[in-house]
Specification:
Blueprint: H1 6-13, H2 27-44, E1 71-72, E2 75-76, H3 77-85
Antiparallel strand pairs: 1-2
Length: 94
């Protein structure tokens, strides 16, 4: 996935070390957690999809102009959202 959303990793770090926090969650642990979360939700719900954007530390995409130009694996964020709303649910990214 190779992305480092610093704000989210910092926020989630407060739950580490018996909620003592301190620092950020390392990128590998964060990525593993996201993929495990996706697998857990898929096991319980068929109507769930993810769009993981790598190589950028941003964590908000739908409220910026980047939503129009962002592409992962040849799938634009805009088209993935349109498909999602039309009931065509898929995972994009790793």
């Amino acid at each position: 996935m190779a992305f480092v959303p610093d704000v989210i990793r910092f926020f989630l770090a407060y739950g580490t070390n018996d909620c003592a926090g301190g620092g950020t969650i390392d990128p590998g642990t964060f990525q593993s957690g996201l993929l495990a979360f996706r697998d857990q939700v898929h096991a319980q719900h068929a109507a769930f999809g993810t769009y993981f954007i790598g190589g950028n530390a941003d964590h908000i995409w739908l409220m910026s102009d980047d939503q129009y130009s962002t592409t992962v694996g040849g799938v634009s964020l805009k088209s993935w959202l349109a498909d999602l709303l039309a009931g065509q649910i898929a995972d994009v990214g790793p």
